[in-house]
Each structure stands twice: as C-alpha cells, then as structure tokens.
Design brief:
The chain has three domains: about 1-25 and about 145-210, no CATH class; about 35-110 and about 110-125, Alpha Horseshoe (Serine Threonine Protein Phosphatase 5, Tetratricopeptide repeat); about 215-275, SH3 type barrels. It is built from ten helices and seven strands. The protein has helices at about 1-30, 35-40, 45-60, 60-75, 80-90, 95-110, 115-125, 135-145, 150-175, 180-210; strands at about 215, 220-225, 235-240, 245-250, 255-260, 265-270, 270-275. The strands form two sheets. It has a five-stranded antiparallel β-sheet. Strands 2-3 form a two-stranded antiparallel sheet.
C-alpha cells in the first residue's frame, strides 16, 4: 500500500513540476542571455564580428564597435554584448543609450555587479535625479534575494530541491522507525519550501524579461503632456536617460508613462525606447 501511495504521489508531483519547469525552460530558450557570443550565437562569422567589435573598442573606435555590437544583437540577446554596447555609448557621451543597454544587460544578469556599477555611474550624469520611493524592508530583502541569481541558476536550484524532496518523501514512506519518519518529513517540508521559493524567484525574473514595460527617455528633453497630442497641457519636462514605466501603450504614436512618485503623463513614442 505504501508503495502504491508513493508512486501515485511521485507521478502527481512530477507532472506538476514538469509543467512549471517547461515554462521556465521555454523562457530561457527565448530570452536567456548570451553570456558568451562564441557558445550561444554559434556562428563563426558572429564570433569574428565580436572580435572585431572588441578590437574596435580597444582602438577607441567606438562608433564601429557600436555598429558591430548592434548587428550581433539582431541575432539574439546577450548580457555581455549589451554591457559592451553600453560602455561604447558611454564613451561617446550618449548617456541615454548607455543606460538603456546597461538596463537590458541587468535584466539578463541581475546579479552582475559590474553592470550595476556602470549603470549607477551613467545615471549620475543625467539631469533628472531620481529619489527612491521608500518601501518595506521585507520587499527590499525579497528583491535582493530574487536578483541574486539568474533564471537558469534558480531553475537548477528548484530542480535540486525538488529531487531532495522526493528522496525525503521516499524515506518517509518506507522508514520503519518513528524518529526517522519524523526527520524525513521535516526535511521534505524544508526542501519543498525552498523549491517553491526558487520557482517563485525564477517566475518573477521570467515575468520581468517577458513583460518589459520600462523605458528610457532617449531625446535630450521632452515635454510630458496631459493628453496624447501636442495641444495637451504641459505637465513637466524629462531629460535623456530618465527611466519611466509605460502605463498605456495602446496609442500608435504616444505612450502614457508613470514616474516613481506617481506622476503620469503622455510622451511621444519616438522620444523613448523600451528596455
């Protein structure tokens, strides 16, 4: 009877985890960073192109480096290429495009300190200074844990804890001693909790990658209006490099944006670029 219960339980939990895991794997396939252009892009021509871009960057020929890096990115996303592209734009003084590409790199590698550091340096050169909105300590702590690793790492951890959970459940069912059964039951709960946390963290990062509603103002300065037309009341002015949240993208040529402090308004689509 125990064997039947265990086999039934294993099949059910496997199906649930497999259905969740397949979503994570699909998201990785479509959106994961190309850490190394050689391994991910898989094309010798693109490897050569990356070498040419790196060489151009070293020679301070940043315009050429930008052109090649952007050509590589047309084949797929890469945190490293976005990072190098951001550095190239920073070198030529295009702070908005530098911030844009650092932000894109950070989505793919949220735990990378170099990307985050360069992003902060670039932000310091913008006109609009952002004041962080206070949030609960628990929320800040949860975000720091979630962003401590990428999707792939969280997926591996989730699978590992799930396997440990299955092993603990197995020994719980088939152990004859009460102490052993209690121990493996507690371990099973422990592994299950961490498996759930890892899955939630991976799902959160997946959502950030798929639902990109943040954008960077790329025009030198833009007037934010009360309505989506040039006759709308002028509300405030934003400058290049400012990060905004796109609240409404249903209009063809206009986007409704929202700032951290809650201020909202409309800006022309051409004045910003989605991260």
């Amino acid at each position: 009877m125990r064997k039947i219960l265990f086999i039934t339980f294993f099949i059910l939990t496997y199906q649930v985890s497999h259905s969740q895991g397949s979503l994570e794997i699909d998201s990785l396939t479509n959106n994961d960073s190309i850490v190394n252009a050689t391994s991910k892009l898989g094309s010798r021509n693109l490897v050569i192109s990356k070498s040419l871009a790196d060489s151009a960057y070293i020679r301070n020929d940043f315009t050429t480096a930008i052109q090649i890096y952007e050509m590589i990115l047309r084949t797929g996303e890469s945190a490293d290429i976005y990072y190098n592209l951001g550095n190239s734009y920073y070198k030529i003084g295009d702070i908005a495009k530098a911030i844009l590409n650092y932000e894109r790199a950070l989505i793919l590698k949220p735990a990378n300190k170099d990307i985050r550091s360069n992003l902060e340096i670039a932000r310091a050169k913008t006109v609009d200074k952002v004041t962080d909105v206070p949030e609960l300590f628990f929320i800040t702590w949860l975000k720091s844990i979630t962003n401590s690793m990428g999707i792939q790492s969280w997926a591996i951890i989730a699978i590992s804890f799930f396997l440990l959970f299955i092993v603990s459940i197995y020994f719980f069912f088939f152990s004859t001693k009460i102490v052993a059964r209690k121990t493996f039951f507690i371990l099973a709960l422990f592994f299950l909790v961490f498996c759930v946390i890892a899955n939630i963290s991976a799902a959160f990062q997946r959502r950030v990658r798929l639902n990109r509603m943040n954008a960077i103002i790329i025009s030198p300065s833009v007037t934010i209006r009360s309505t989506p037309n040039d006759n709308g009341t002028s509300l405030f002015i934003l400058h290049e490099g400012r990060k905004v949240f796109i609240k409404d993208d249903s209009m063809k040529d206009w986007r409704e944006i929202q700032l951290e402090d809650g201020n909202v308004g409309w800006v022309k689509k051409i004045d910003l670029e989605v991260i």
